[in-house]
Amino acid sequence: MKTIYSIFFFFILISGSLSAENGSKLWLRYQPATTIESSLVQFSSVVCLEKGNLLRSATNELKMAYSEMTGKEMPVSVVPQSNSLLLGTLQNKYIRSLNIGKELAQLGSEGFVIRRVKLNADSCTVIASAGEQGVLYGVFHLLRMLQTNSCSFNVKEHPSYKVRILNHWDNLDGSVERGYAGHSIWKWDELPATISPRYAEYARANASIGINATVLNNVNASPEMLSTENLLKVKAIAAVLRSYNIRAYLSINFSSPKELGGLSTSDPLNADVRKWWKNKAAEVYKLIPDFGGFLVKANSEGLPGPMDYGRTHVDGANMLADALKPFGGIVMWRAFVYEPGDDRVKLAYNEFHKFDGQFRDNVIIQVKNGPVDFQPREPFSPLFGAMKKTALMPELQITQEYLGHSNHLVFLSSMWKEFLDADTHAAGDGTTISKLTTGEVYPQKITAFAGVANIGNDDNWCGHHFAQANWYAFGRLAWNNQLSSEQIADEWIKMTFNRQLTADSGQQEIKMSQQVSRDSCLLAVKKMMLSSHQTAVDYMMPLGLHHIFAWTHHYGPEPWCDIPGARPDWLPKYYHKADSIGLGFDRTTNGSNAVSQYASPLKEQFNDMNQCPDKYLLWFQHVPWNFRMKSGKTLWNELCYTYDKGVQSVREYQKIWDKAEPFVDAQRFAEVQSKLRIQARDAVWWKDACLLYFQTFSKQPIPYDIERPVHDLDSLKAIKLDMKHHN
Which of 631, 602, 597, 590 is nearest to 614 (CA)? Predict the structure, then answer.
């Protein structure tokens, strides 16, 4: 007998003061909302028309939402009724009868519609899809609309990318490389016997924003990850993720046949090596039939790869692709490669564009958004648009390795939209990154969107309450890369800080003046989020400066850094090139000629100091200190005023957040307030360090109408952070 589910929606007002919250609920807070129009949610019942693991997850989410909104158990209905909410796929006769089959087929198994329809003369609302996955995403979409008071019953959605994947940099010992939110959520020492309830919460949070895949381990992978013992642990995690349509992937070490399998070599053209990988793939898929595939970092930063044996990236990627092909798996091969010698920004392009069209059709090249390494601002990698016959996927960094770790409030959607909306001009005007990576310009069998996760075992998941917004934004952009940062920020704020206020004890209505004040305050918080990326660039590395961070931990400024024996391209001086003449890396045709990797008219713009956009000026040009900027200021003065602007903006953020105190629970308010104090101090640290150091080359005064440095250069040079205790 079919199990039929239903749910009634209504809202009540819970009076009383705001209680403390630790942030563990993320954006999934189904609080009573008195401002939602009751006409939008007065369903007589909600009915799930079919069985299935994903449909069960969808109906369970509705049960949870109902319980949290009303304090009651969800009633059950066995048949569709007038004004009911129907959940189903094309397999169901009711859905087939609604004349939306063609539309659902076009949207695919993950797409969905939310529609008011006539069924047996009754008015109903349907969430329908060609597959269970779409119904699950449709339920989360409906709940998002309810949480944000933006309900519509004429919705049609499908994802921009087929694979929407988090890359965990988690290690088997529980540490997380570039992780700033505690230890790994994967308890490898407890698995497979003990399954943490956090795994299901993780899967649920990802499903709510459309993420459908995750790489469980670090790209700097241990060969032991593929041992049978650890694969059984991966199997246990995958079983939890599966209920939310999330596939597990693994990073692999290219030398696994030698290091783990006991072979004498890991040469990708060796017959025994190829057989080892085929057998290992068969073992993985026997344990985990829906396993996604491998992520590979090879011949990069000391990790092994095919070039160790005189082979190419094509040889290595295709060998793994052949092993995975019978099972439907894919290879995500990272383009993050650089060897000492030529200008580092050119190296990924030089290494990969010559192989265009030579990779198997189940290989996709994973390319960082910029050509260096997740800097606060970079021009897009020129590989996007250069490879016309090879599938490419963007790799973004959600964890803030170069943006203040978990201490700085930086909303990354603005940076990612700048990247996605960038026009490469590769196939004429309007050839944006978003169009290139979704296969609209050059056909791609696989489309994918990756983000390096910022998730740990801290109560609030991400170390900073506002860092949750970056996890949320990544998922939303992976689902729909046309969303605006303003829309994403608006959704996240309303879903994360959605507790309603009461006027006074015993009153049952919120005074209009209170609500207006609250709305005005949260609007200011949204504006703060939207400006925060530019602010971080301003107080860290404005005008195209890049990679002038402290050695190894990448937290604070160290433009003077000089480590004996270190590779030049690991040191800040390699990038800023400060001297008595000016500042910046000359990548013009008279310098490293990196501009030639871009299509016209970009390469001509970047090559001309007078045409190059200010935000990339010092990336492409070595600019004289007295060069007249577009603002009319000299480069030196522009640099000074921009650093000062960044400092003043963070101080303004402190004021904005302090005004939010009446509208936010005490715990999260205090924790964000504390982080903003750290950020304000760090902004001054960055400003003073960079201006005082660069002043030793410019020999010019800091303009007198901006804030004076409060440090001296020698004391700043003496700072050596112990990052184990700093985050």
Answer: 631
Cα(656)–Cα(724) distance, integer angstroms: 31
| Domain 163-496: CATH architecture, name and number where available | Alpha-Beta Barrel (3.20)
Please, what's the b/e burial string for 428-457 (b: 16 or more CB within 10 A of its CB; e: otherwise)?
Answer: eeebbbbbbbbbebbebebbbbbbbbbbbb
Reduced to 3 states (helix: H, G, I; strand: E, B; else coil), residue 396 is strand
Give tens-digit pLDDT for 261-308.
999 999 999 999 999 999 999 999 999 999 999 999 999 999 999 999
Mean pLDDT over 515-533 rounds to 92
Quote the Cα angle for 493-146-30, to 5°. Answer: 70
Residues 440 and 384 sit within 8 Å (Cβ to Cβ): no
Q: What average pLDDT does this structure show over 145-164? A: 94
Q: Are 185 and 453 in contact (CB under 8 A)?
A: no
Please report, to the nearest 10 degrees, the dihedral formed by the alpha carbons of residues 347, 352, 354, 360 taken in order. Answer: 170
Do residues 710 and 679 make contact, with C-beta atoms less than 8 angstroms apart?
no
Residue 605 burial by Cβ neighbours in a 10 Å radius (0-12, 13-18, 19+): middle
pLDDT beyond 60 at 63: yes
Residue 94 pLDDT > 60 = yes
Q: Are 130 and 54 in contact (CB under 8 A)?
A: no
102 pLDDT higher than 80: yes
Q: Write the secondary structure of 407-428 as one string of H (helix), E (strand) and C (coil).
A: CCCCCCHHHHHHHHCCECCECE
Q: What is the DSSP letter of 214?
A: E
Catalytic residues: 301, 373, 401
Give the C-alpha distances (Å, rounded to integers) separating 581 from 545, 568, 642.
16, 21, 20
pLDDT tens by residue, 412-432: 999 999 999 999 999 999 999
- Would you mind telling me the total number of residues written for the chain in this entry? 727
What homologous superfamily is domain 1-158 in, according to CATH? Chitobiase/beta-hexosaminidase domain 2-like (3.30.379.10)
CATH class (in words) of the domain with range 534-585+622-717: alpha beta
- Domain limits, the chain: 1-158, 163-496, 534-585+622-717
pLDDT exceeds cutoff 70 at 37: no
